[in-house]
TrEMBL record:
Cytoplasm found in the keyword field: yes
Protein name in UniProt: Triosephosphate isomerase
Lineage: Bacteria, Pseudomonadati, Bacteroidota, Bacteroidia, Bacteroidales
Active site: H94 (electrophile), E166 (proton acceptor)
Pathway: Carbohydrate degradation; glycolysis; D-glyceraldehyde 3-phosphate from glycerone phosphate: step 1/1; Carbohydrate biosynthesis; gluconeogenesis
Cellular location(s): Cytoplasm
GO BP, sorted A to Z: gluconeogenesis; glyceraldehyde-3-phosphate biosynthetic process; glycerol catabolic process; glycolytic process
Length: 249
């Protein structure tokens, strides 16, 4: 059956030294979690944090990777480079990347394919903005995001993808989707995956919720049948807060 996962997304926070301190503290307090645990760090932290967390139950993710394999793309970091740090996951399609860096469905499709080709598991983010939810369009928006970037994958490739449903209106705002809203969307996503890849792959697909998830609301979200954990921004920046969310499982 599918895995429960709690994944942190540090975003553009923490110097290298602060990141090492956070990872060190996490390593000492996260011992036998009842779910898979991942920390998503800035590129420059990856190699050091991956080395530090070796032998611990915590895996490491990049927050992005390039949409080209290699070459003259100054400032970019390829999926192969991410893999070479010891990271095993990469967050792709975060709404901040879509909104601020113009990442289209086609660009994200390339990134997903490069991640998989280099042995990284994508944590692929989808989610509607406030206006789209207010117009009742959330289901079609998320469907288009999945179809536009993921549904060209083979079943074997898709089986390695983790999906994170992150309603954009809930990210960093303190507004959390209700457990009912989240469950409804997660069930919609699983249904779309089942229609495309079959029931077995859909049942094996971990679908995480993200958007102001914290120690107080995690348990009520994770209690739902189609919510397999969380992608955590703000509350992943303090070891104890992140641990409390892990302990919700
Ligand atoms: C995120 O950015 O992935 C996220 C879920 O952020 P926050 O938890 O801070 O809302």
């Amino acid at each position: 059956m599918r895995k429960n996962i709690v994944a942190g997304n540090w975003k553009m926070n923490k110097t290298l030294q602060e990141g090492v301190a956070l990872a060190t503290e996490l390593k000492s307090i996260v011992k036998n979690p009842n779910c898979d645990v991942i920390v998503g760090t800035p590129f420059i932290h990856l190699a050091t944090v991956a080395e530090l967390l070796k032998g611990s139950p915590i895996a490491v993710a990049a927050e992005n990777c390039a949409d080209h394999a290699s070459g003259a793309y100054t400032g970019e970091v390829s999926a192969a480079m991410v893999k070479s740090t010891g990271a095993s996951y990469v967050i792709i399609g975060h709404s901040e990347r879509r909104a601020y860096y113009g990442e289209t469905y086609a660009i994200l499709k390339e990134k997903v394919q490069l991640a998989l080709a280099n042995g990284l598991r994508p944590i692929f983010c989808v989610g509607e903005v406030k206006e789209e939810r207010e117009a009742g369009r959330q289901n079609e928006v998320v469907k288009a995001q999945l179809e536009g970037s993921l549904f060209g994958l083979t079943a074997e490739e898709f089986a390695k993808v983790v999906i994170a449903y992150e309603p954009v209106w809930a990210i960093g705002t303190g507004l959390t989707a209700t457990p009912e809203q989240a469950q409804e969307m997660h069930s919609h996503i699983r249904g779309l995956v089942a229609a495309k890849y079959g029931r077995e792959i859909a049942d094996g697909c971990s679908i995480l919720y993200g958007g102001s998830c914290n120690a107080k609301n995690a348990a009520s979200l994770f209690a739902n049948p189609d919510i397999d954990g969380g992608l955590i921004g703000g509350a992943s920046l303090k070891a104890e807060d992140f641990k409390a969310i892990i302990d919700a499982f």
